[in-house]
Amino acid sequence: MKKTGTISKKLISPPAPRVGFVSLGCAKALVDSERILTQLRAEGYEFSGGYGEADVVVVNTCGFLDSAREESLSVIGEALAENGKVIVTGCMGATPELIRSKYPDVLAITGPQAYESVVNAVHKVVPPLHDPYLDLVPPQGVKLTPRHYAYLKISEGCNNRCSFCIIPKLRGDLVSRPASDVLGEAERLVASGVKELLVVSQDTSAYGIDTKYAKSDWRGREVRAKFYDLCEAMGELGAWVRLHYVYPYPHVDEVVELMADGKILPYLDIPFQHASPKVLKNMRRPANQEKVLERIASWRKICPDITLRSTFIVGFPDESEEDFQFMLDWLKEAQLDRVGCFRYENVSEADSNSLPNHVPQDVVEDRWNRFMQVQQEISAKRLKKKVGQTLKVLIDEVSPEGIIGRSAADAPEIDGVVHISSKKRLLVGSFLDVQIEQSDEYDLFGSVV
Ligand code: SF4
Question: Is the pTM of this model over 0.85?
Answer without folding.
Answer: no
